[in-house]
Amino acid sequence: MTIPECHVRAEVLDERRGELNDMLVYSLGRKDNVIFDLRGAMPYHNMDLEKRERLWDDGLHFTEEGYKEIGIMVGEKMIQVIEEVKPEKEISLSGRGTMGIE
Known about the structure:
- By secondary structure, the protein is mainly alpha-helical.
- Helices cover 50% and strands 0% of the residues.
- The protein contains four helices and no strands.
- It starts with 10 loop residues before the first helix and ends in a 17-residue tail after the last helix.
- InterPro entries: SGNH_hydro_sf.
């Protein structure tokens, strides 16, 4: 998961966060890893004020609603990944069901 921007704008902070996010995307985005771009999904400065006030608490942390929104987005990403790698046939390790893979 990438690191989102925050209220504070400081060139060195923005550059380092950008470098770290680029490194995360480059190194984790390869192979069989999945990365969620929280930086792009929850922008602080490019979000309209009303939405920002609902989702961002103090400019660094999210509100309860903001964390719920992140959970929904991450869940949707997980479903997308599961759908992409879902086996051809249903799998049951216990013999009682498909463990949610249908």
